Structure to design on (168 residues):
């Protein structure tokens, strides 16, 4: 199911023109099944009718943004049909605050908009093939934020053991 023709994407944006632009970009790279949603009810309807493999959510900024609310709805709501679905945030902003807000909301990947269909497809593929564990905590629901996959890296455990050795 790595072919774009086999992927179903639910595009979430309260801005209809941006949603149509994202749909055109996805269809331009071969994604045949693209459905649009403008709010949480349409997201629920999209899950029922389309059974998407991933979500592409338009995020305009870090403050009071419909896109971030859509990500939070999918990740944290009891009504969400699939809290673990891969989410790709698409945004015209590339500042640290916005990217961090998307990561904290539970997004898998981030694409700066406008982008090529090929760049969008790479992010869709990366989000679908992620091997990062899924975290469910009171303050965060989403993929593990750590990207380091080196088995020799012990992470925080390494720092704890080195500080214990230094204290001895």
């Amino acid at each position: 199911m790595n072919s774009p023709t086999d992927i179903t994407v639910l595009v979430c944006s309260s801005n209809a023109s941006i949603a149509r632009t994202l749909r055109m970009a996805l269809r331009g790279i071969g994604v045949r099944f693209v459905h649009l949603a403008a709010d949480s009810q349409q997201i629920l309807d999209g899950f029922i009718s389309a059974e998407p493999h991933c979500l592409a959510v338009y995020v305009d900024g870090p403050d009071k943004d419909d896109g971030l609310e859509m990500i939070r709805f999918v990740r944290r709501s009891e009504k969400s049909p699939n809290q673990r679905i891969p989410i790709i945030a698409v945004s015209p902003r590339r500042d640290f605050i916005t990217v961090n807000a998307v990561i904290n909301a539970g997004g898998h990947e981030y694409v700066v908009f406008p982008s090529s269909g090929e760049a969008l497809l790479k992010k869709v593929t990366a989000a679908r093939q992620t091997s990062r564990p899924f975290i469910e905590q009171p303050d965060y629901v989403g993929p593990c934020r750590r990207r380091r996959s080196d088995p020799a890296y012990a992470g925080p455990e390494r720092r704890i053991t080195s500080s214990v050795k230094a204290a001895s």
Summary: The two ends are 54 Å apart (CA to CA).
